[in-house]
Amino acid sequence: MSGHGNTTSTPTLYAAIDLGSNSFHMLVVRQVAGSVQTLAKIKRKVRLAAGMDNQQQLSDEAMQRGWDCLALFAERLQDFNTDNIRVVATAALRRASNADAFLAKANTLLGYPIEIISGEEEARTIYQGVAHTSGGPGKRLVVDIGGASTELIIGEQFEPTLLQSLNMGCVTFLEDYFANRILNQAAFENAIAGAKAELAPLVAQYRELGWDCCVGASGTVQALQEIMVTQGMDEVITLEKLHRLRDQAIACGQMDALDIEGLTLERALVFPSGLSILIAIFECLEVTRMTLAGGALREGLVYEMMTAMRHSDIRARTIASIQSRYQLDEDHGINVAATALELLHQCPASWIPEPEAGSLLHAAACVHEIGLSIGFKHDGDHAAYLITHLDLPGFTRAQKQLVATLLRYYREQLVCIDGQHALSTTSANRLLRLLRVAVILCHRRNSRVRPMIGLNADGDALTLALDTTLLDASPLLRAELEQEALRQSSLGQPLVVHAQDAHALSHTHH
After folding, report:
1. Which end of the chain is more exposed for a tag (fewer CB within 10 A), N or C?
2. How far apart are CA 317 and CA 158, in angstroms?
C-alpha cells in the first residue's frame, strides 16, 4: 500500500514539505491552465526550536512531536511521483547536535530523503517563492522571520543579489527575551536591541544596495496583516503601526492576557518576539513600508520543481491562466485593455499619479468579462466575487480588492468607490471611469474597427472627442456614450462627448 514512486502516481501533483523551527508545513499543489492550484495545506505546530537545550540537543518530546507530524504527512504522499516531492529542514535541524537521530527515524517514516538546507539556500529558495507569487517592478527586499532564523534578501525579478540568514527567530527570541511571559517596555527594548545587534554587521551593505519595495514572507507578517485589516487599517505595514501594536501588547501586561483584536490564539505566543525582530529591521534598515508576499519557502520549492512555470512576468501568467480557465474572449480583453491604456496615456501624468495604475487597469480590462462565466445578470457582482476569492499571484490583497471593485461597476450601474488601499480614492474612481468608456468604445468586439479617440482631462472633467463620421454612422455607440456621460456627470464627474473632424483628431491623437 505504500506505493512510493508507483506507476499510478499522478504526475501533475507536487508536494513541498518544510520542517521549520516552529511549524512543519506541507503544501500540495497541481498545475492547471498555466497556474498553480493549491489542493492542501497541512500545518502542525511542532515547536522544535523550543525543545532545544543549551547543548543544542533536541528533547525527546520535541522529536516525538516531529515524528508524529511526519507520519501524517507520509499518508498524503502515497500517490506522488518521487520527482515531484521536496522535503527540506531549516534552522532548528541545522543547529541541533542530535539532528542525525531525528532524521534517521524521520526518513524512515516519510520514505523520502530530507535535506537539511543551509541558511543561504533557504534564503535563495524563499526569494524564488516570493518572486513567483508577488508582483512589483525594481529591486525588492524580502524579509522572512522564522522560528529560529531570519532571512533577508535583496533581488530583482528572479535573481537574488544579496542574501543573509541570521541566527534569530520568533521561537528562540521568545525563550531569550520573553521567557517569564511578561510584556513590558523593558522586555521589548531588550528584544529589539538583541535583534539590532544581529543586524548590525549587514546594515551598511543592505542600505548601500537599496531596494524599491519591501515584502514580508512569514507568519509574523501575516499575523500583522490580519490584525491591521481587522482593526480597519490598510494592508501596508509601517513603523508607526508596529509601534502601535507593541503598545497594545504592553498594555496587556503578560502573555496569558495578550488580547489584540485580530490576533489568533495560535500566533499569540510568538507574536511579541516576531514583532520585536520586525521593529529592529524597520529601524536599522530604515524600511518605510512593507506588504505581505504571496509565498515563500514552500512555494519556492514547488516552482523549482515545475520548470514550465518559471515565467518572467507573474501578473501576465496569472491573467493568461484566468483567461484560459474561464474561457474568456482574450482578443476582446486585450482590445479593451489597449483602449483603456490609450485613454489613460492621453491624460496628464498627474491625473492618476501612481505608477501601478496602468498595470492594474490593464489587468482589470483583460478579465473584465469573468462574471459572464456565471451569468449575464449581475455579472459585475459575480466578477467581484471571483476576483476577491481567486488566488492571484503577483497582486497584493489591496490590488485584488481594487480590480474586484472596478469589475463590479464596469458597466451599467456607476457609484463613487472608496475604501480602496491600492490607489488613492480619486485615482480608483478615475480608473473606473476610463475602464467603462473603453468597454463602450469596444462594443463591436472587433479590434480592426477601434475608433480614433481624443481625451482631455481637466480636474474631474473629461472631454472625449470622436470622429464625426464614425458617430454619425454609429447611433448605438453615440447613445451609449451619452448615457454614460449622464451617469458620470450625475456623480459630479463631468464627461462630455463631442464629434471632431477626423483630420483634427488624428492631429491631436499623435
Report:
1. N
2. 15
What pTM value is reported for the model? 0.79
The tens digit of pLDDT for each residue in 127-182 reads 999 998 887 778 999 999 999 999 999 999 889 999 999 999 999 999 999 999 99
R_g over Cα of the chain: 26
Other CB atoms closer than 10 Å to residue 456's CB: what's the count? 14
> Is the separation of the CB atoms in 314 and 133 below 8 Å?
yes
Whole-angstrom Cα distance, residue 338 to residue 315?
16
Q: Residue 39: CB partners within 8 Å, gap ≥ 6?
A: 13, 28, 29, 30
DSSP state of 46: -
**Confidence grade of residue 11 (pLDDT, cut at 50, 70, 90):** low
Task: State the pLDDT at residue 420.
Answer: 78
* Nearest alpha-carbon partner for 49 in 35, 59, 36, 40: 59
Segment holding 467, helix H or strand E: strand 461-467
Residue type, 358: G
Do 451 and 485 form a contact (C-beta atoms < 8 A)? no
Residue 460's identity, in one-letter code, is D
Above 90 in pLDDT, residue 205? yes
